[in-house]
Predict the structure of Succinate dehydrogenase iron-sulfur subunit.
Amino acid sequence: METKTHAASTRDPQRMLSVRIDRGRHAGAGDYASYLIPWRENQTILDVVTEIQRTLEPTLSYRFACRVGVCGSCAMTVNGRPRWTCRTHVRRVEEDGQIVIEPLRNMPRIKDLVVDMSGFFDKWKKAGNRFVGTATRNDPPANIAPQSRRRKLADAAIECINCGVCHAACDVVAWDRQYLGPAALNRAWSLFNDERHADPRAVLRQASAGSGCNACHSQGNCMTHCPVHLSPTGSIAGLKKNALMLFLQGG
């Protein structure tokens, strides 16, 4: 394992933050580079990575967009936990003045902290998550009561933005590479309960086939780590229940 250390100049050398980043340059083994940067008030992990890239390591690759907790593209593993780095303040996660930053797990690394999410989105499609409406643009908008049971069930899961944090946190994804994963199944649950969707039973069949919802061990890591406090565990439980009912009905 190779480690190299960089230090940024600062007017307060007494208070520095030690950062180790897994750059993964050697196949099959982590390759961490170490950096020292000034410890500032209210700095986020994304601020830290950006400062390192701009002042110490211009070749460091990472992904971000909005910086305000809307897009989810800045997700990384920080001290062993998947997080949105733009909303994670250093003071909340540092351990004795040290931070370890790694890419999200369960997805192939492209370079440094950037992972390939194509497999993640392929599973999203396999779960039957393409909306198919029954109305045309010439029809009036669907009249869906906000307080209806199905609308509430759909609303409970609809805020997912596919950041991949739950996928990275899921041990079942790590064990079973065919498992559709919590994000894809959470979306399937939302679509299954959407009264405008043309064939909710087809969604249920796809979401429960093979390594679908029934492969979930209900450990709850997805729910624990979701940055917007959704419960994919609850969504998957709903899919399991309805899939069983469909099977018993001979559907």
The chain has a mean pLDDT of 90.
